[in-house]
Write a structure and sequence with these properties.
The chain is of the alpha+beta class and 156 residues long. It is 23% helix and 15% strand. The protein has a 3-stranded antiparallel sheet with strand order 1-2-3, with no helix packed on it. It has a 3-stranded mixed sheet with strand order 4-5-6, with no helix packed on it. It starts with a helix and ends with a strand. Bound molecules: flavin-adenine dinucleotide. Flavin-adenine dinucleotide binds at residues 51, 53, 56, 58, 89-90, 106-109, 111.
């Protein structure tokens, strides 16, 4: 699926005149442009950076059950079978109440919501208040690439 998505993205971008370079990276940025690691200089004043995210490799060293490289937790952010251990944010595979069967994406907004809840649920485990499951009203954002040719790309 990932390869299919990559191929489609590459095809759409190329059909719009975007030149795609692989097997190289940005080695240096200057006020006049960028130098690729293969030595070529590309004059530009605008840089748009797209990136992926991944959980901290520390997760795999902990020996806890993991899902997609993130620590498996229940809806209370508690690690099942390990008393008094909670996880949240990028390192945690938190069930997403808005998308049944999926885990919450790695984003700052989810991490903030989960951080507050983790603190409250830790306090509840010590007898202060009652624990709550993860709920949010965060809407995912998408980048829409499949528009009528000639229209600019847009983020929704
Ligand atoms: C370039 C970039 C842009 C992004 N832009 C957005 C955006 O626009 N909107 C959005 O919602 N999200 C964005 N994100 C994602 C967002 O930053 C993360 O989802 C969010 O920071 C996760 O928060 P966290 O607290 O779980 O982890 P982090 O913010 O990664 O915090 C983890 C902390 O733990 C520390 N740490 C790691 N290992 C150890 C250790 N062994 N001992 C002690 N401390 C340790 C780290 O130094 C770090 O300070 C972006 C991410 C990147 C990389």
């Amino acid at each position: 699926m990932r390869h299919r998505l990559s191929r489609t993205t590459a095809r759409v971008l190329r059909s719009r005149g975007v030149e795609i370079r692989t097997q190289t990276s940005i080695g240096q940025l200057t006020s006049r442009g960028l130098r690729l690691t293969d030595g070529e200089f590309v004059p530009t004043r605008t840089i748009v950076w797209s990136f992926g995210v991944r959980p901290d490799p520390l997760v795999t060293d902990l020996g806890l059950a993991a899902e997609q490289g993130r620590i498996r937790v229940d809806e209370y952010l508690a690690v099942p079978g390990v008393p008094n251990v909670y996880a949240c944010g990028d390192v945690a595979a938190v069930p997403d109440p808005a998308r049944r069967g999926k885990i919450a994406p790695m984003s700052g907004r989810h991490a903030l919501c989960q951080g507050g809840l983790a603190g409250a649920n830790v306090a509840a485990s010590l007898g202060y208040g009652s624990r709550r499951p993860y709920r949010h009203r965060i809407q995912d954002s998408v980048a829409d690439l499949i528009r009528t040719p000639g229209q600019p790309l847009r983020a929704a």
